[in-house]
Amino acid sequence: MNEYLKQLHQKILEHHQKVETNYPQGMTCKNGCSRCCYVDLSVFSLEAQFIKDWFQALSAEKKAELKVLWEQETSYQENFFGQNVAACPFLKNESCSIYEARPVICRTQGLPLKFNNEGGASVDTCPLNFNEDELVIDDCLDLDRLNLILATLQRQRGDEERLSLNELLNELKRLV
Question: Taking the complete model, does pTM exceed 0.85, yes or no?
């Protein structure tokens, strides 16, 4: 199952590279830009297991470093809607501490997304990256298709369980 998830990650990366090539001024997402990380997210158990496997493969020293990092206080920031919200528990010093194993939703942040909305196609973009008028619809990541693939992989595991990222963080801390 991890192999399929890795393939999905690769496809998202390839799409990201295509968007960066087609819109070199559009993608302003870089390390330190974390506005999209101030949300409360959950992931399917499939992705939680992927992150746990990644963590388990780290050296004892790296695990201990991460545990210390994860003990830092959670930061708060105003989101795009003007609300003061907590950061993802894995966001420390404005950087993702699980970047290599981050969930699919995090891998798609900043990309132009298309999805069906009441029978028609809608586009969603990060206001820091794109103006919707400049986008070609084929350059938008199909969020409906992506979610269908992820849900299908999850169903093949035989469960529909989701884990909040806070719960996942607590599980990882217990593994050290």
Answer: yes
